[in-house]
Amino acid sequence: MTTDGFITCLWFDGQAEEAAHFYVSVFKDSSIGRVVRWTESGPGPAGSVLTVDFTANGQRFVALNGGPEFTFNEAVSFQILCSDQQEIDQYWAKLTENGGEPGPCGWLKDRYGVSWQVVYAPLLGMIADPDPVKAARATRAMMAMGKLDAAALEQAYAGA
């Protein structure tokens, strides 16, 4: 195995290039790489996109136009660790626009059905706090939210 890490392959039904451009527009440190097109040997129409290599937030992906056989579900999601409410709001808005769906506890699906967790990064420490009362307050607050509210999580954690 090379030392370049893993590449995540995302399966689309004809939207691979569109999705790659969307993700590159959402995240910093992002770019489109190689675009591979079908040849006359098929099975896709000659010239149509087979795969698009892209980087989003420094992570490598390949978007594959694999057809309708498989779709995304919540069993796999991507976590976005946000330092403040502004970041939470920004990612939430971008990823739910044009057909995305908000979900519970900071989860959402984007317009392609990919699941994301837009997380207030300090929350991870709050819910793992060795003080079970503090951890429970933070967890209860999170469980009652759709998009996470950093100030409300901090207040719940502090017992305010």
Describe the fold and architecture.
Helix content is 31%, strand content 28%. The protein has 160 residues and is of the alpha/beta class. The strands form two sheets. It has a four-stranded mixed β-sheet with strand order 1-4-3-2, with helices on one face. Strands 5-8-7-6 form a four-stranded mixed β-sheet. It is elongated.
Concise description?
Helices cover 31% and strands 28% of the residues. It has 160 residues and is α/β, with parallel strands linked by helices. The strands form two sheets. A four-stranded mixed beta sheet has the order 1-4-3-2, with helices on one face.
Q: What is this structure's SSE topology?
A:
Elements: E1 8-12, H1 16-26, E2 31-37, E3 49-56, E4 59-65, E5 77-82, H2 85-96, E6 101-102, E7 107-109, E8 115-120, H3 122-127, H4 132-143, H5 150-158
Parallel strand pairs: 1-4, 5-8
Antiparallel strand pairs: 2-3, 3-4, 6-7, 7-8
Helix pairs in contact: 4-5
Shape estimate: elongated
- Element order: H for helix, E for strand: EHEEEEHEEEHHH
What is the averaged pLDDT score? 96
The end-to-end span amounts to 51 Å
Helix/sheet category:
alpha/beta
Largest sheet: 4 strands, mixed
Strand content: 25-35%
| Low-confidence runs | none
Rg over C-alpha atoms, rounded to the nearest angstrom: 19 Å
Number of helical elements: 5
Strand order within the widest sheet? 1-4-3-2
How much helical structure, as a percent, in the residues?
25-40%
